[in-house]
Structures
1.
Amino acid sequence: MAETQTPRSYQPAQGDYLMLRPHITEEQRLQKKKLIRRVILFCLCLIPLFTWLQGRLFDQSLDLPVNSNILIFALININVILLLIVLFLVLRNLAELLFERKLNILGSRLRTKLVISFLSLSLIPTILLFFVALQFVSSSVDYWFNSSVENSLHESLKLAQTLIQDSQEQVQITGNDIAAYIEEKDLTDFTPEALSASLQNLLKRIPAGIPAAISIILTNEDLAVSESNQGLQGIVLPKIPIDLI
């Protein structure tokens, strides 16, 4: 009886992978790698340039006909695209390197060691700087919310509230003095010139700057007289309509 043999699954050899790849010369392969490296370098040079332009747009130091928000949005998108291109090219080169190492191509092990050395020299200082910057930012934030700084802010707030309260009390006392002076002199029977002179004398008696100006409005005669101290001599006070009082 003839024995039937079960078909076995075909396992391609390592040389079959080389046959499936398009045949390119060594010179073409080197030119391709040089082109990829130039593209990566060009993208890496454009990223800080666009970042600098974004900073200039945030400072509003450029007078452009286009809205700066639109330009910032466009530059951010361009930076993201450039980062994706660089990431794609780097991962593509790493994948090719892994395949060449798997196929035991001449020089693949040396290239792998060089790439690992390059990544180590690039990533290790970057990671160290990242942790140092993170620690610096954390310590700065902790200093901002330190108890001594918080106490200083509370003391400043108390001082400001005390000054406001003292100013209110001084204004109230001055207002009472002005009201008593007006009741004593009975300024309603005076002429506008006499009223101006009385107000000037009143401004000299009260503390400087409290108040800076005095206005008397007589509703029955539709008369308004205003006087100000020396600091407001060149400023015209606004006229308040009598019907609003």
2.
Amino acid sequence: MAVTGEETETGTPTDLSACHLRNPGTSSSQGGTGITGLSAFSSKQPTTDSIHKREIRLLKNREAARECRRKKKEYVRCLENRVAILEKQNKTLIDELRAMKEMYRHE
């Protein structure tokens, strides 16, 4: 028997012992969402399949985060090298400009 949020008190007594079905005329402690106790029960106790999927997802996420941090460090290292090269080039150009100004000043 499939249990949905629209069902009321139907089914055999054994079906009702597994979940509490919400009566449309009464308020529920679950906020009146119409969700049956069965779906609330399944969300509180995840199946081994969902636990396994979660562990795999967390592992993949951890590996992706590690790879992202590695790439970021590599990128920052590359930028630092580029800064060093540009600073050296800038210093060389400034020295060259200073020498040319000095040369033209004496002429």
